[in-house]
Specification:
By secondary structure, the protein is an alpha+beta fold. It has 9 helices and 8 strands. The protein has helices at 3-6, 10-15, 20-26, 51-58, 81-84, 106-117, 143-158, 185-188, 193-209; strands at residues 42-48, 64-72, 92-99, 125-126, 129-130, 136-139, 169-170, 175-177. A hairpin with a 2-residue loop joins β4 and β5.
Length: 216
């Protein structure tokens, strides 16, 4: 979400091509994937557009302990919103998800990621946000996560789960937390125009398609 996007009223956001209805209609019920059981606390790092929405979706999933918005794929020196917004740092807006594998598996997180958290067929953009920092990318934290992500992309592609090709990349790189004002943004600003137009529909889709995964 560029600085100018934050100031737009809902009508302008809708004209940008990412209406609430469109975002909700894009949601799909991705099939499940089996992954090896993990032991102890686990972490997943996922990128797919503005981290506000990713954080808002995943913090509502059972078994998720915390979600931190940040940057992945570039250097520590460039891990700031001002620098990442230049689209020259190699960073993607991403979230770091700490989860309990006894309650939710990495495979289930990937299912949420592909189904409702973002559109994996949009190249270097999500909705009104454009540029490589908004790319669809998975940053595996282990070899088993990498194998699971690669296998799931193959499975989704073979099943033609989406009308267009999946462009999600498997990448490596460290994760760096974003500025404090980005953290818990959706929870703190539920009536923000950008949130209402782009991210509330994702949460609604999660509740509609996967009600058994939603906290409370």
């Amino acid at each position: 979400m560029r600085q100018w996007v934050r100031g737009l009223i809902p009508a302008l956001l809708l004209s940008a091509g990412c209406s609430a209805a469109a975002a909700s209609d894009r949601a799909v019920q991705a099939p499940a994937i089996d992954v090896p059981a993990a032991v102890g606390p686990q972490v997943a790092v996922l990128a797919g557009g503005c981290f506000w929405g990713l954080e808002g979706v995943f913090e509502r999933v059972k078994g998720v302990k915390s979600v931190v918005s940040g940057y992945a794929g570039g250097s520590r020196a460039d891990a700031s919103y001002a620098r990442v917004s230049s689209e020259r740092t190699g960073h993607a807006e991403a979230v770091r998800i700490a989860y309990d594998p006894r309650i939710v598996s990495y495979g289930t997180l990937l299912r949420v990621y592909f189904s409702v958290a973002h559109d994996p067929t949009q190249l270097n953009r999500q909705g009104p946000d454009t540029g490589p920092s908004y790319r669809s990318a998975i940053f595996p934290q282990s070899d088993s996560q990498k194998r699971a992500a690669e296998a799931y992309i193959r499975q989704l592609s073979a099943a033609h789960a989406f009308a267009r090709p999946i462009v999600t990349r498997i990448e490596s790189g460290a994760f760096f937390p974003a500025e404090s004002y980005h953290q818990d943004f959706m929870r703190k600003n539920p009536l923000h125009p950008y949130i209402l137009a782009n991210d509330v529909p994702k949460v609604r889709a999660l509740r509609r398609l996967m009600p058994n995964l939603v906290k409370g």
